Amino acid sequence: MAFTAIEPAFGLTPAERRKIAAVGPPDVLVRTSYPSLLDSAGFVDVVAEDVTAAYRSTLAAWLGETQRRSGAVVAVVGSEEFEGRQQRRINALAAVDAGVLQRWLYVARRRRGRGI
Fold it and tell me: For 42, left (φ over 0), alpha (ψ -120 to 50), or beta?
């Protein structure tokens, strides 16, 4: 299995994690680490790769291109929704630049003998 996850940086305080919840995607906070979740679900050989730089590039491009096409986007979603989305992207980009929001690629193999 392989998937990416946007998550808070390791070692943040509870207050810092709450701030990340406000700028990250929905459900950005999990109670434990993804490697721990994978282990409890029966996955082994977990490999994690930091892909935050690519995530940052995507966020910046998304912000810029959406701004460039703001007239068309506002016509579809309205100005209030447009401004809110852009502000969330700006906040997420700032969190990435501050090193507190990251994106990881996880690859793992299902432990033998466990079905699904």
Answer: left
